[in-house]
Write a structure and sequence with these properties.
heterodimer, A: mainly beta, Folate-binding fold, 4-stranded antiparallel sheet, two-stranded antiparallel sheet, about 10% helix, B: about 425 residues, alpha/beta, FAD/NAD(P)-binding domain, D-Amino Acid Oxidase, Chain A, domain 2, 2 domains, globular, binds flavin-adenine dinucleotide
């Protein structure tokens, strides 16, 4: 069971949250000018590293907030939690 | 290879089982091969076998970082079935099931295929309608299926929670009678033994760490923990580690790695002689020959390479299983474990050339590629040998993610494994 620290509510069990996958993704545009491979990249080629990953999570069964965190996909250790719009933390 | 037979079993019985030979060699890597396959799971080993059997290519190595069959092939719940919705998937998985039906003979190795039926239970009128829809689609694709009434389901699964207080009432379902289970280790071992006998080198405890190219960019081989191994072609069959290998080779794959868990109870007397799946909860169960109930469910829903799952998923799966057959509530769980599965957005596999020269991929089987091992190997061998995809594999290209021609079995059948 992961303990995840919501920026509003503090540490809560993972069952209160949903994971929204990779964060800091920008939708390419304008639509008519985006080539197919760029769309495919945006829609389907998400980062899938063995190690640290920046993700967005939502405190679904709590305050409802979307926020970001850095999690290691092998150890599940969460090394930083930050709000939407905060600068992207460096990961090793 | 000494063939296994009733006579050899009989003779060895008299000789105190002293005459059995090793099932496969432990060779040192040769300097170079025509084809190096990364990953000695079912798909990698089957590819090696069919490369020789169908195309006469024997100068092949299968390189495995751990032990053969120690990945998802040795961790799965062994359900085989071909009850898919779309014609492309139906053709692919049905070919796999047909190959499975002849596999024990073909490999001279008992894979213990038990076609005890794959039953999907509907818990609402809407699920029952969906069952009729799937069953009819399957029939149109030439695959056996039968819609069952509530009474027929109750007769097939004694103890199923069909009483008036049931949280998930039983409304009926459908069954693919040719579906069932097989022995997962035996599939890996059978292909390994048969491939080895055809001259394939299976090199265990050897991790592929990189790819080497010459000045012109042509692939010349792979770097491994046991040194450089030359190769004209390299095939990736590494399941949950596909993205990691792709990155080492310089491209990206549209897959995400998740942990999928399974668990077994303590052994009990025979009580369940089919594979039963609850559509509402996604939990499914079968009983092994040892008597254990083998139980599976959904993914841990965040990316993972941990090869162990988290407890909330276990709790959910167990709660669903007990809801389905309350009598098992007193059983102890003996073991739980997880494998790392490679999931695509449409829950369909990728069998294609990689976007870099000399590399071929078989991945994206996600939660359901055990049933596909024979066809995954068969079609990847074809691609490697002929440099063009087998007709069955054409729809399962990487290009579909650009063209939008997805084969969305996730949305279609909603069955996780
Ligand atoms: C809990 C669970 C239940 C499942 N239930 C079912 C089911 O009921 N029915 C079904 O059809 N499917 C099921 N599946 C899915 C099925 O197990 C997989 O799709 C299938 O086994 C994949 O086979 P594979 O040969 O591609 O991969 P694997 O068997 O995982 O083999 C890949 C191999 O590659 C090796 N490898 C990785 N990286 C490297 C490297 N760098 N160098 C060398 N070797 C490397 C790994 O060690 C591994 O042995 C289940 C999976 C899990 C985890
Ligand atoms: Zn909160």
């Amino acid at each position: 069971m992961l303990l995840i620290t919501c920026p509003e509510c503090g540490a809560r069990p993972e069952t209160e949250f949903v994971c929204g996958g990779e964060t800091h993704i920008t939708r390419p545009g304008p639509f008519a000018e985006v080539p197919a491979d760029v769309w495919a990249g945006y829609l389907f080629h998400q980062a899938n590293p063995r190690g640290k990953l920046r993700e967005r999570w939502r405190h679904q069964a709590g305050c409802g907030l979307w926020f970001n965190l850095v999690r290691d996909t092998v150890t599940h250790e969460i090394t930083s939690v930050y709000r939407m719009g905060d600068p992207k933390p460096e990961i090793a | 290879m000494k063939r296994y037979s009733a006579a050899s079993l009989f003779t060895e019985g008299f000789r105190g089982h002293t005459g059995w030979e090793r099932a496969w060699r432990h060779p040192d890597p040769k300097p170079a091969y025509d084809v190096v396959i990364v990953g000695a799971g079912g798909h990698g080993l089957a590819t090696a076998y069919y490369l020789d059997k169908e195309h006469g290519i024997t100068n092949v190595a299968v390189v495995e970082k751990g032990w053969l069959g120690g990945g998802n092939t040795g961790r799965n719940t062994t359900v085989v079935r071909s009850n898919y919705l779309y014609p492309e998937s139906a053709a692919l998985y049905e070919k796999a099931l047909q190959l499975y039906e002849g596999l024990s003979k073909d490999l001279n190795y008992n894979i213990m295929l038990s076609q005890r039926g794959m039953l999907e239970v509907a818990h609402s009128r809407h699920e029952l309608e969906a069952c009729a829809y799937w069953a009819n689609a399957m029939r149109l694709n030439g695959i056996d299926s039968e819609v069952l009434t509530r009474d027929e389901v109750i007769a097939l699964v004694p103890g199923i929670n069909a009483g008036p207080g049931a949280r998930y009432p039983v409304c009926g379902g459908y069954i693919q009678r040719r579906g069932g289970i097989a022995r997962h280790d035996a599939v890996a071992w059978g292909y390994a033994r048969a491939a080895d006998a055809r001259g394939v080198d299976i090199i265990q405890n050897c991790e592929v760490t990189g790819f080497r190219r010459d000045g012109a960019g042509t692939l010349v081989g792979v770097e491994t923990t046991r040194g450089f191994i030359g190769a004209k072609k390299v095939a990736l069959a590494v399941a949950g580690h596909s993205s990691v290998m792709a990155e080492r080779a310089g491209f990206r794959l549209p897959v995400k790695s998740y942990a999928l868990q399974a668990m077994v109870t303590e052994p009990v007397k025979p009580m369940l002689d089919t594979v039963v799946m609850s559509l509402a909860t996604g939990v499914y169960m079968s009983q092994s020959d040892k008597g254990e109930l083998v139980i599976g469910g959904g993914l841990d829903l965040y990316g993972s390479y941990a090869q162990r799952g988290n407890f909330p998923t276990i709790e959910k799966v167990v709660a669903s299983a007990i809801e389905l057959i309350p009598a098992i509530g007193r059983l102890k769980l003996m073991r739980t474990w997880a494998g790392i599965v490679d999931v695509t957005h449409d829950s369909s596999p990728i069998i294609d050339r990689a976007p870099v020269q000399g590399v071929y991929v078989n991945c994206g089987w996600g939660t359901g590629g055990f049933k596909a091992i024979p066809v995954g190997g068969y079609t990847l061998a074809h691609l490697l040998a002929r440099d063009e995809p087998h007709p069955l594999a054409v729809p399962f290209s990487l290009r579909r993610f650009e063209s939008g021609r997805l084969i969305d079995e996730a949305a279609a059948s909603g069955i996780p494994h």
